[in-house]
Amino acid sequence: DCSLWRSAHKNRINMAFKGEDHLDSLPLPVQRMHLIQVDSVQRWMEDLKLMTDCECMCILQSKPISIEKDEQNEFILSSQHSTCDNLQLLLKRAWIISTELTRIAQKLEKNRWQRVHSMTVRVNCHVRSMINEYNTFTRNSSEEMHQFEKLLIDKCSEFTAFTERCMQTEDEQILKSMKSCINETLTTIAQYFGRLIELVLTHEAQNLLRQIELSDSVYVTESAISSLFSLTQEGAHLCRIIAKEGGVVVLFKICRQDCFRCLYPQTLRTLASICCVEEGMHQLEKVDGILCLADILTDNTHSEATHAEAAAVIAQITSPHLTFTQHLSSFLENMEEIVTALVKLCQEASSGEVFLLASAALANITFFDTMACEILLQLNAMKILLAACSDKHIVDTPYSRDQVVTILANMSVLDQCASEIIQGNGVQLLMEMLFERSSSGNSAEVAACERVQQKSAVTLARLSRDPEVADAAVKLSCIPRLIKLCRSPTERNNSDSVLVACLAALRRLAVMSPDGLEDSDFQQLVKPRLVDSFLLCTNMEESFV
Q1: Same domain flag for 87 and 190
Q2: Can you say how many angstroms the Cα of residue 278 is from the centroid of all Cα atoms in its chain?
Q3: What is the mean pLDDT of the segment spanning 341-369?
Q4: Percentage, residues of the chain above pLDDT 90
Q5: Is position 16 within any domain?
């Protein structure tokens, strides 16, 4: 599925900020700020750059040192970072403000007025600094943005005054009456702040898309697309903003111009990110994006990197986890061409990453439409995938094996599939997949290993209706391995889905070869109802094995 190839493909992982208490009203762009996982000391050093002495900031009101007007533009240009760096700075500042607002709400509930006031002063400073920093590198802010900037600054000043008065009184009744006003003010600040951030991000998305659309320079276009991609990594809400502003249309225009061929991989990578939201998918359909992707995949003059990124877009838009793929009617019209190109990409892949993207797209397509399995069978895809699994440089991770076994599981519903499995030594591969274990202990990799075990058991269960496959599985000692997975929770990483699949496969093989089981295994794992065997195995202690 899409989450697998995406996490393996340059670690495209987004984390979400979760608001609490009075910050439930914070809009999505604030709630989904991108958190960077780094060493705590390094993180502290980075955040320190954004911290400001509160007393000095209150005195200066965050105003820059005055310089001559004629020199100002030159000063700004000379000190300006790239658009991408400025946006990242803005988002980090916004994340800090969001965190501070959450902490204020928590301290307010505990009536820690001194802490509330000091944190309020700090938020006031951060808000002014953020607005000042943004106005330093943007030149054409809208009137609505200026309006919300003023509303936010005024409300922050009012909030600081409120909390200062609370510090000067010890009367519980007065504090209780003022608390409701402070709560209301805090909620308003959160709303103004969230709206301002959304306006800023929309404004920046518009600027970048305008730059991409109007520029003839490869360098300028590349820089703008890079900045746009960085925005897509900040969460689904930003992808929605970009899609609503016409991002998919603009990027597909790039993919239809030969002069920008060197930018196709980067452009397609950005499209894959935007198409994780429904708005992006609707735009893709409107601009005949499927046809464009099919043309790219079937054009042998394109680089492998371009083909791989086109496969990544296909994997994204056909993800079985998305609920809004039904409108992709044009996909069915081009499916045979796309599937053929993806099988060829799997066969000729020069790296594990390319194979992962192509196989992930194929795996998702087999969920998307059953006709895809018949096309794959005609293209000898089974033979190609099984051969790829023997090359440890190509199928080099549990994520890749997960895609392969997903395709095998979905194809195994076809009767003709059994002979292909036998010819390609597929039963041996499925047996090996039952032993899949994570070498790193990483949670994502462990989950991928569980899926490999589960789907290989499902595939064995489906294929074992063919006596020849069942006989091969018995000879390869699949039954003892399935019993081990059922009885030993650690072998299956305590996964219930693996247990159910193994019980189903074991029961199918037991019908074909009843002599392969001991009486205790038959009585506990085969004879009872499936749910009873499941409950028995889930309650087993490790010492029982």
Answers
A1: yes
A2: 15
A3: 94
A4: 46
A5: no
| 490 inside domain | yes
Structural domain span for residue 504: 460-544
Is residue 325 within 8 A of residue 288, CB to CB? The reply is no
Category of 38 on φ-ψ map: left (φ > 0), alpha (ψ -120 to 50) or beta: beta
pLDDT recorded at residue 21 = 38
Q: Which backbone phi and psi does 321 adopt, to 5 degrees?
A: -80, -15
In the chain, the number of structural domains is 3
Say how far apart CA 487 and CA 469 lie, in whole Å: 24
Q: Which amino acid is at 260?
A: F
Tokens of 127: 């808000």
Q: How confident is the model at residue 542 (pLDDT cuts 50, 70, 90)?
A: very low
Q: Which amino acid is at 185?
A: T
DSSP track, 344-403? HHHHH-SSHHHHHHHHHHHHHHHHH-THHHHHHHHTTHHHHHHHHHT-TTTS-SHHHHHH
pTM exceeding the 0.85 threshold for the entire prediction: no
Q: Is residue 29 part of a domain?
A: no
pLDDT in tens, 278-288: 999 999 988 99
Co-location of 97 and 152 in the same domain: yes
